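Here is one such protein, fold included:

. . .
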Amino acid sequence: MTLVSNLQIGAEIGSGYFGKVHDGTDDVHGQVAVKIFTRTPTETDAEWQSRKQGLLAEGQRLSRAEHANVLKVHGLLESQTSDAIHLVMDYCPGGCLQKKFEAGPMLLSDVRKYMTHVTMGLAALHARSMIHRDIKPGNILLNKHGAAQLGDFGLVTDNIIVGYASGQGYSDHLPPEVLNGGGTSVKSDVWALGMTIYRLLHGAEWYSRLPKPRHVAGKGGFAKHLPFLPHIPKAWRTVLRTMMNDDTGARYQSANAALAAYSRLDTTPRWECVVAPDKVSWTCLVKKRRYFVNWEIVGTNLFDWSAWSEPTGKGNKRSFGASKGVDYDTADRELTALFAKIR
């Protein structure tokens, strides 16, 4: 449908594969976000009319998909020149989780909180026979209450045939079956959700060292060989590897099943982690002592690490482990064991 509105479009605040996002104001809803889909120079009149009608129909579907953790869609407007469609949505002042991903590893408790929100929203879309197909940190927004909402609906579809939709989107979040020519499904959304959790747990610096998933995930064994920061508990790793299993039958079969799995995961101690090009450092507070761990690159595949604690009041500094000049696998194994002991 085409609506008449006094929508005022402001500055660009983001962009995605399918369009740019601007802030705006609307007589009814106040401050809003506006995603603008424009006609491309190569589209014929017939192609644009077809895409425009699809966007308008999608907007109607999304306006019915109401959930506290799905970004609210207020409506769609066609430009006066008929060469653009404006998707009008709630404005989220907290921005997107891409900013937090770029800042570094997030606390386990924050990741679990935000992913719980998003997974409940995703389950609501799935319950309405919609597949999102573009789950990533940049498409998760924080509203004025600090709750996470699933947004950027450029790829949401309800055109599902036997549970599958066409394979677009994701970029590095494409699961093996899609990379190998299959269709997207509820279970490919679960795979992308697992990749999103992994990224938020590790931050941009660590993630940048990995081979691009789009180049290797289709070859098999991707999740099995993902390198984890050593403070990530074993149970978290098991859940993520299940979410991203190559075999769709071995994955969690729904968003709700994934949610049930990680709702039980431990989030303590609250390790604050900083990843730099040549060093990873951690700190946390446990029982009136602050713990510190440093892991440094000292040569070609050679690493030093050290760990100690200091009292918050009176007392002595205590060393509780160190290694010098060990290879990556040894350092990773020793540090993983160390973190498992600190409770």
